[in-house]
Structure formats: structure tokens, C-alpha cells
Records
---
Amino acid sequence: MITVFARPETLTTAKTHYCPGCTHGIIHRLVAEVIDELGIREETIGVCPVGCSVLAYHYFNLDMQEAAHGRAPAVATGIKRVLPDKTVFTYQGDGDLASIGAAEIVHAAARGEKITTIFVNNAIYGMTGGQMAPTTLLGQETMTSPHGRDAVTQGYPVRMAEMLATLDGAAFIARVSVHNPQEVAKAKKAIKTAFEVQLSGKGFSLVEVLSTCPTNWGLTPLEAIKWLQDNMIPYYPLGVKKERQEVKD
Amino acid sequence: MAKVLMKGNEALGEAAVRAGCRYFFGYPITPQNELPHYLARRLPEVGGVFLQAESEVAAINMVYGAAGAGARVMTSSSSPGISLKQEGLTYIAGAELPCVVVNMQRGGPGLGSIQPAQSDYFQAVKGGGHGDYRLIVLAPATIQEIVDLMGKAFDLADQYRNPVMILGDGILGQMMEAVEFPEQEQPAVLPAKPWASTGAKGRRPNLINSLYLNPEELEQHNERLQAKYAKIIANETMAESYLTDGAEIVLVGYGSSARIAKAAVDQARAQGIKAGLFRPITLFPFPKKEIQAACRQARQVLTVEMSMGQLVEDVRYNLEFKVPVHFYGRAGGMVPTTRAVLEQIKRLAEGGDLA
Amino acid sequence: MKKVEFDEERCKGCELCTAACPKHIVVMADHLNSMGFHPATVTDQVACISCGFCARMCPDVVITVRKEDKKHG
């Protein structure tokens, strides 16, 4: 018999601390599969955020650096400027990237830093117990928007992929989802393209992955998948937002 | 090598390059901008990287990444920007990474002024960021001393895997003096860094991290850090004792204040007062044995600083409160004059209190 | 060797695989694993088409999927 599916080498055997049904597990695995397929495990350095995936360094068989909250793109910039021939990626949640780290991601993209960012958007703060995120939808109840996010006092959700796509330094920006096997396959393709963009020296690449947080949404994993499809995709449309063809010198 | 007339901020940059620094990440802030300007031109000449970051916060995190990747890397700022870097500095200390951070102090608190000050002493030597950590803090008093200490700064950082701060002030940054640089354009040999995150080729992955969720592990980590600081305290103090043998009144100061105090000491001696100057060069580790030796016969100690009184607390503490320690300071960018300091010395000599 | 194999001790009982399987043959077992979850499992191995959708959706790398090697039958 031929093995059709097994654990990628870039993923360790550690059992994750993530909640049942948390899509971090899927996304970690996709990143690991892509690194395996591109053959770059020994030349890649990952940067972990603060958030549920703060312990991502336990799950990737790679050199990793733990960054302060929001600062991963700056840390990755430091690494890539010292080691331009290595592959450097950040893995960040919506608090890390879109709130405290908003300046760092915008400027890494604007500078066209040749790094890849995996942005996990689950419209809430998971690790700290379910607070509102910049990506929380209007009307969505969280621990710090107990009556539902109100535009008047709490503003509007931020579409990071579209915003970053306006920057000339961004070479590849896409938004994907992981709510069924077909979308998981598309997500993997986008992640692979993002890493290939870095390898070809084109510039900054980012994949925003719509994800679930069953625990803080108060739903079962299967209900959460449905909530994502019904509520997040209309506001955060899937697709490639920016794809530059030529290498910018 | 011939002497060259240079501005302090620029000499800092050239000294860093000769000490092997090839990466600089920083953000503009007065009064240190000539340093990034200089390195923006100089680093590409030696195959290095200069990057103006979007903020001091981003810059210190770029330093973290670069240091974790094994580089000799530097950032610089002035007081308000150093406040922004505190988060990054505790992460660098906790992850045991080497780097050099330059603070050309200016008036505070808050936005303060762009004039020189020495009111970041507490921030530099007592922490600034959260957690039980220390920076090694060097306080040059002349531009030549900046040049002479720079190699040591990077060596100490690499040896102890700890951030090293060069605590200057606006005067040092802006003034011009004749300096001589070491011949080499870079050190012959740089220490190996097998712990760095360079890509896990043929070895187990390396991790650069300061997170230890398990309390036993974090306590052990803290004990390791303290053991490191104990070694630094035992081995790395530096100080200058000027005319302190038999001195009855010892002045204490660092950086620009020390130069002014030295001039006052000379004038006092010319008037028959047995004055001397103790100048710590390392502020952490504080040169405790050295200050106690220098003040052995002192009846009075006078600390001179451009602050409302920060170094003076450590002077009292390290002299174990055995000698009366007086304070003379100016703030807001006001610089003590030699005449005013001499006035303080004369009052102490006459047995009176300070003005 | 099985076409679809579940490392039951890794399973957190999230059930994403049960919805992903186009043949609807993935079910949650009656017993518990040592973490206290009902692990996913497949009893009807013959019905498995080795599509790998279950493994694709699994966040915990519980599932290994194999297919018949047609060359060697």
C-alpha cells in the first residue's frame, strides 16, 4: 500500500494544546507540508506570536524565535536582513497582527520585506479568554463586547488582506479558509505560492486564513465551521487580493 | 592611525563598525540623529545593513531577530525612544541575546526637551523593563572613551549573551573631539554562536525564547540569569579614580558631569582643598570596591549629575551610608557649571551645608 | 495494513472528520481515549476510497491514509 497522507516532517509529534476542532492544527500542518514539499526545512526560521499559537515552537521542527506581541514582522525583518538566503515566516493571530502589531505588519509589507506571514483570523482573542478583536464582526458578542460589537463605540472590523494589498511592497496577498477539505486544499496552494514568492525574491507575501474558535464562540467545532461560512466569508471574501508577476529590484 | 576630528554621534557609528557591528536598526530622535545618518552611509560600504524602522519599538524587535540570528547588531535612541524599547530589552535579556543599545540622554520626563540630561540612570541600571534582569551599562565621558569602549561593549554582549547599554548624553553626542580609531576595520575573529537561529541544518532546531510557563523552569532560568549577573559584578567593573588618594572631599559623577566635576576638582586642589573625583565607567555593575577604596579617607562625598538625584542613591548605597553623601544636580537641559560645582566643594570644605 | 488508520490517543473528538468524509464512514467510537474524548474511527475499511479528506480536516494529525498500490495489487 502507498501512504497517501501522513504527518509532514516539519511538524513534530507533539500533541498540541489547541482546543478540539481549533483550525490552528490544520494551518500548522499546511505550513509544514509546504515547507516539506519545497525542501526548505533546514533553511527556514519561523517566528511565533503571542496568542494561542505562542507555543508553536513545540510543533514545528524548525529554528524558531518567540516574538513579543505584535512584533513578529519586525523580528522576522531582523532575521531576514541578516540571513537573506534563508526562508523566514511569521505566524500570527488577529490580536497580534491586526491590533498591537498593526504598524509592524504594514511597514514590513510596505518595505517589501522578503518574508511570509500566515495570518490566522478567527474574529476573536482566543488565548486570553475571548475578547473582541479588530476582526470581530458587528453584532458579535465577545467578553469585551458583551452586547455585540457596536459600530458607534467600538468601530468596524478591519479587512487586513485588502488593506495590505494596497501597498506596493506586497507581492502576494490572499485570503483563504479551512472550513472543508476543498478549501483546505486551496489554502495549502495559497500558502505554497506565498513561500514560493519569498523564494523567488519578489517581495512580501501574506495569507490570511479564516479560522474557527469553537471555545470562545461558544459553539461545537462543526457548528463553528458553519458560523464561519455563514458570517465571516460574506465580510471577509476569499481570493487572491494581490499577485505581482515580476521581481522588483 | 592619525587622529580625526569627529562629532560624538558619528564617532559612535565608526567605532561600532570597527567593533564588527554590521547591522543597525533605529528611528530618528534628537539628539542622536547623526548616528543613524552616519551608519546609513557607512554600513553599506562594509557590506552591512542599515534600516530605518517604523518606530523605536520595531527597531528593538529587529535587533532581537538579528541578534537571534547570530549578528553583531546595534540600535540607538534618546530617552523617550529608550522608554519605547523597554519591552524589547527585557525580551532580549530573557532570551539571552547580545546587542548594544545607545542612549544619548535628553531632558524628561515625557517629551521633556532635546537638551542633555542624565535622568535615565534608574531606567538603565535598575531595569526599565519588567522582570529580574540587568543591562550592562557603560558610561563614557569623552569621545575617545566611546571609541575605546565600543569593542568591549560588543565583546561583553557576546560573552555574557546580554544587552549592553552605552549611556551617553546630548553633550557627548553633539560635541566634536579629536579621536583615534583602532586600525582594524573589524575584529579578526568573532565568537561562534551555535545557539543562533540560522536554519536547522544537520542539527536539532534552536529556539530563541523567553517564555517559560512552568514555574519551576522559570525560576531556574532566573537563577541562571542571576548567576550570570554575579559573574559580571565580580569581573567587569570599571572606574576612574582621580586624585582620590587622601582626598577629603570626593566628587562622584559619570559622563559629561564627570568632566565638569574634574575641572572643579582641579580648581579646588589649586586652592588647597583636598578634592578628588571618582568616576564609575560601568554603571552596572556598579564599581563598589573601587568607590569604597576611593572614599576611604573622604569626610564628604558630593555627587554631581544632570538629574534630580539618581546616581546619588547608588553612591549612598555602595558606600553603605558610612560617609555623608551630598547631591548637586541640574535638570531640564541645564548643565552644571564648573564654578557652581566649585562653590559646592568650598562650602563642604568649610564644614557647611550645600547651598 | 488499513486504508485509514486513527491514532486514537491524539484524537480530541472534534468530529470535523465525520463531516469531511464523502462516504460518511467516519464515526465517533463508544469508548474514551486517555484524554477523555471519544476518538474518531472507521470500521468499514472496505468502503474507504483513500481520498484523505478526513486527514485533511483533522487538526491533530490523527489519521494516516493509504491506498492500494495498483502496480503490485
Note: The first helix of chain A runs from residue 24 to 38.
---
Amino acid sequence: MNVVTRKLIAKELHVNRWFVAIGSVAGVVSVLLSALNGTGFNVGALTWLTTIIAMGVMLAIYGIMNERKEHTLEFIMSLPLSISDYVLAKMIGLALCFFATWIISVAAALVLVFAKDSVPDGIAPYLVLLSVFMLANFGVVLCGMMHARTEAWSSATVIVTNMGVSIFMFTVGPMEGIREFMWGPAPVWNSAFWTVLGCELTVLLIAFILPFVFAARRRDFL
Amino acid sequence: MEPKHIEMHAVRKSYRFFTLDDLSLELAPGEVMGFVGPNGAGKSTTLRLAMGLIAPDAGEIRVLGQPMPTAQAAAKREVGYVSADMHLLPNATLGWHMDFVKSIYPTWDDAYATTLVKRFNLRKEQNARSLSLGERIKAVLLLTLARRPRLLILDEPTTGLDPVARHEVISEFMDVLHDDSRSILFSSHNTVDVERISDRITFIDRGRLVESSNKEDFLDRWRRIQLQLPDGIELPALPNIVSRSQDGRFVTLVTDQFSEGFAALLGSHVREVQRMNLEEIFVANVMRHREVRGS
């Protein structure tokens, strides 16, 4: 990795520092809210989910789509870097920003699950799957934005990936091997868990590889 | 021998409704080329091709000896690119941008950057989002000039600027030219700016290069000649006439190959021979080009 790429990654971290800080605080606060019983739990869980999804979408919109729309990309591309350097810097920079919020929010949620008696520990595998799904979802958003040339395609990427979260909850939640252990007293890391996790990590990997195969080899970048 | 700063040979770039075709041009070290064309002529496309931001469908491009766009990262170390559309990062200050660019370019000149901040009346604490159009262009120029590039590629950098800001910006380009090894490719449809700083002019229209020559050569060759013909006398067919209009006995000719011999050919009918400015030459040249191409 060359100096310019490293500087661009540092630029992403600098530009998005408040975003990451606010997202991380929101993630932790929503977990604290979930510690309350009843409505507090539901509101907290929803806020937690929304925070992570919104964080991914906003990072991709501000980091990629707006850079193109507001002609900041011309300034960046005037620097001594190739298109593949730019793609590498964007993917790593934005992924680090998202990962910071994601890991803090997920860790806080797992602490809540294991620390609070009223929340069954059995939900931990589902929580991990949901969290990794949102990580993969972010990878897909990033990949989509990196390839989208118009606002319409960028918006379509956001809509489809947002729908993906609901689809995940409707399909993985009731899945055999997940559903029956979800409310149990101890987490069960069975084959169903590992299969879903494997699928999610595969999607994540593909989403991070595709931009280097296609976007980085684009002949026209503006 | 130092390579040409820009070499384009038979370059073609096609879009759905526009094609830049068979473009060849060269920019020597120390040269300032004004790249003039109407809106949509292909100026920005050409400059983006030179920067490696887009790739040609055919032809060859070399910038500072480097093949583009494949070696764009290496070439751009010594190229400064400014476009009227270019924006800085909206949430970062000018000072942050200066530090950022400085950290990338070892050639960054701190003293010159400070001078430019003062000269352009900018403030380092200013957020890029709060910059006016003129300030934004001056800020981008500052970031470009302070890294002391060997080649400046400027895409309509004075568009939208007020006369004072334009004067400041053009003066800065002229300062750059004190160093003979640096060159500028400067696109504009403002021929006054181009005429001030360029020593070579290239006209482009509808994706085709119309003509490229030294500025002085253009200004020396092109003339508007006004004639008054006696009754019953017809003007003979003359060579190198770009345009001709007649109002009764009064005829106006425009030629791109004026010489004393040419004036002698017209004899005593000549009432006035006028020098043409670059804008008039540009318009006449483009109109002739369109006529020849039948469009």
C-alpha cells in the first residue's frame, strides 16, 4: 500500500470521525435502553438496529455517492493515485469507520445479553448472525455504491440492502436450529449457526473483492 | 532531452451523443497552450484524458513521458489539475487541505503557500463548504500551485470569476511561467484570458481539432479586409478566403493567410485592413470548420 492510499484512508477516518463517534455512542445508548424491560427493550433494540444500518448507509452515501455528486472526486483523483488505489483506500477507510461503530455496538449488545438475567443467553448466536449480516450488508452497500454511476442505482442499492435486513429476520429467525435455541438459557453454536455465518462471511468477502475486480479496473472513473 | 509534457496521438473517445475524434496535440516544456472551444467542444474530455481520469477508446496519450491512463499515479506526481467544477472536502478547513496535500507532495512549498493564502485573501480556518465560487477556485489553485507541479492542466479555471478574481488568478499563472521548465494546458472559452497568457493556441469544435498554432502566428495571419468596389466590377476568386460578405459595393473579406502580396492582389479597392483579436479568429475559424464539415 502506497503513501497516498494510506493518507486517503487516514482522510476517511478524519472526515468521518464525528460520524463514527456519534454512531458508537448511539449504539451503546440504545443497548443501555434495551437493558430496561418491556418497551425500553423494544425501543433500544430497534434503535440499535437502526443505528448500525443507518451508519453503513450514511457512510456509503457521504463517502462515495456525495464525493462524486459534489465533484470532490475530481480533487481526490487529481492526486497521484490510480483508480485501484482510490478503490482500496475507500474500501478500507469506510470499512474501518463502519467497523468501529459496529464492533462497539455489537460488543455492548453481547455484554447486555450475558450480563442481564432477563435476556436469555440463547439469543447470542442469533445476535451474532444478525450483526454479521449487517456487516455483510454494509459490504454490499459499499460494493454497490462503488459500482453505481447514477444516483438511481445508488438509491436502489440502499433500498435493496435495507429490505435485506427484514428478509434476514423473517428467514433466519424462524430457521430450524436457530429458533428453538433462541430463548434458551445457554447459547447453542450448532451447524445451523455456522452455515448461516459462513454464508454471511462469503457475501462479505465477495462484496469486498468485487470492487477490486470491476470498479478498480474501470477505464473511466469520472 | 526532456520529453514533451503532453503528447496525444490520434485519440478517440466516444460517448452516446459526443465523440472526440482523431485528436493529436503536443505540449512542449515551458509552453503555455490555450485550448479554446465552445461549450461541449470536448475541452474537458481532452483534459480528463490527459489526467488519466478517463481512458481513450483509441490512440495514445503520454504525459511527462508516462503512458496514460496506466501510469497516471506516477505522472500525477508532477501534474497540477484544476477544474472549475472541482470541490474540496466540504467539512474540512483550507488549513487541513493544505496539510493533507503537503503530506503527499514532498515538493510542497510552505512559503509560497503562505504567500498565496495572503494574496488570495483566504483564511486557513475557513471551512471548504463556506467558500464562495471565487474563493473555492483560488483555494484549489493554491493547493495545486504550492506543490510546484511541472505541468498545470487547467479546465476553465476562470469561469464564473469576477474580473478582479480573474486578474489575480491569471497573474498567478503568469508567475508560474517565470520558470521555463513548467508548462500549462489551459482550457477556456474566454479568449481574453487565453490571449493574455498563451503562446500557443489550439481551437477545438464538436470533438475535432480545428487548428493549432502559435498565438503570434494566428494574430499575424488573420485579417479582416474591407473593400469598396467600383460599379460593375466583380471581385475575382481569391485564395485563402475564410469568409466573405457583401453589402452593395462594400465587401468584407476574412483571410487566414494575410501577406503584403495578398493586399497587393486586391489593389486600390482596399479601404481598410484590420487585425483580428483571438475571439474573432476563433469564431471565424470554428464557423469555417463547421461549413467544411457540412454541419
Note: Chain A touches chain B at residues 2-4, 7, 11, 14-15, 70-72, 74-75, 77-83, 85, 219-222 (CB under 8 Å).
